[in-house]
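chain below, 244 aa
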Amino acid sequence: MSETEQELRVKLAACYRIFDYMGWSEMIYNHITVKVPGPEQHFLINPFGLHYSEVKASNLVKVDIDGSIVEDTDYAVNPAGILIHTAIHAARPDIQCIAHTHTNAGMAVACTQEGLRADNFYSALMHNQIAYHDFEGITVMDDEKSRLVANLGNKSLMILRNHGLLTGGRSIPEAFQNLWAIERACQVQVTTDSTGRPSIPIGPEILAKSEQLVAIQGIGEPTGELEFTAFTRLIDKIDPSYKD
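prediction:
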């Protein structure tokens, strides 16, 4: 195993533990993947049957772009996860990491006709950056791939209608940060709606400069790097066994 792959394994395993810490795990379901550099187009995914708190660098499963397992392992992989991730990894070489969740807030917004409104702090920063894909049942039918990819287009954030949230990133930290931001926006929207009071609209002139404002706030650091590193330190204090 190359040093690069080992580093990615540790980082992806940390990401699974962070998701669990955040309350984003869903029994043994959902998935986060990362591409392994090289012409083979291999990527790593969680073993089907393990809770996120059990994921380690050593038990991540390597598959090819068709979803076939390419190394010895005691585990299978989630068919729905394989379809989603093979489709996007094959079509979007700019996306290294993909994350998918079934959180309460994310699913609640995904079940509404209007989707995510650009009327809170976080959703405003994602103005015009979110794609939508209509529900087709459990994502295990191969013909859904083309529609999933077409609906994602060149975006890295997607709401799967009636289903949940999906984000991509040029790195594991960026995919994590994208998921955190869209999840937080959904939480705020659901909480706002629970008050029964009208929300305050955000003007188009503010929404139009959201990308510029985010760039200033980022202080030149790669997206998600500071946040992901901070949470990795936290996980190291709780249980560093993800590195095994």
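Residues 3-243 form a domain with the L-fuculose-1-phosphate Aldolase fold (CATH 3.40.225.10). The two ends are 14 Å apart (CA to CA).
thats it, cya
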